[in-house]
From TrEMBL:
<feature type="region of interest" description="Disordered">
    <location>
        <begin position="74"/>
        <end position="99"/>
    </location>
</feature>
<keyword id="KW-0812">Transmembrane</keyword>
<dbReference type="Pfam" id="PF04418">
    <property type="entry name" value="DUF543"/>
</dbReference>
<keyword id="KW-0472">Membrane</keyword>
<dbReference type="GO" id="GO:0061617">
    <property type="term" value="C:MICOS complex"/>
</dbReference>
<dbReference type="InterPro" id="IPR007512">
    <property type="entry name" value="Mic10"/>
</dbReference>
<protein>
    <submittedName>
        <fullName>MICOS COMPLEX SUBUNIT MIC10-LIKE PROTEIN (DUF543)</fullName>
    </submittedName>
</protein>
<keyword id="KW-1133">Transmembrane helix</keyword>
<comment type="similarity">
    <text>Belongs to the MICOS complex subunit Mic10 family.</text>
</comment>
<feature type="transmembrane region" description="Helical">
    <location>
        <begin position="21"/>
        <end position="37"/>
    </location>
</feature>
<feature type="compositionally biased region" description="Polar residues">
    <location>
        <begin position="77"/>
        <end position="99"/>
    </location>
</feature>
<keyword id="KW-0999">Mitochondrion inner membrane</keyword>
<comment type="function">
    <text>Component of the MICOS complex, a large protein complex of the mitochondrial inner membrane that plays crucial roles in the maintenance of crista junctions, inner membrane architecture, and formation of contact sites to the outer membrane.</text>
</comment>
<keyword id="KW-0496">Mitochondrion</keyword>
């Protein structure tokens, strides 16, 4: 039963976080739209962009809440030796190329 209440608490936290981020980001977009843009279309676009940023950040945080850890990007593996065609020619082993 403790597991079920934990999931309910996670859903409550995510819903609260999503609503707050959506509203605050939309208000920030509206304020920025009033300051920066003249036409109603660009003001609406500013509000929509703010709402999208809010929902996106809430989604990222909710996925961390449910998964328990943040997604970590792993750098690609590098090999210690490059393929032969990518290695520079060794000028010391070939005395005919020495000037």
């Amino acid at each position: 039963m403790a597991e079920k209440s934990d999931v309910n608490a996670k859903w409550d936290a995510c819903l609260d976080l999503s609503v707050r981020r959506f509203v605050y980001s939309s208000l920030a977009g509206a304020f920025a739209g009033l300051l920066l843009f003249r036409t109603p279309v660009t003001r609406r676009a500013s509000i929509a962009f703010g709402a999208g940023v809010g929902i996106g950040s809430a989604y990222a945080d909710c996925s961390r809440i449910f998964d328990g850890s943040a997604a970590k990007l792993v750098p690609p593996k590098t090999t210690s030796s490059a393929p032969e065609e990518l290695q520079p020619p060794n000028s010391l082993s070939n005395p005919s190329q020495v000037c």
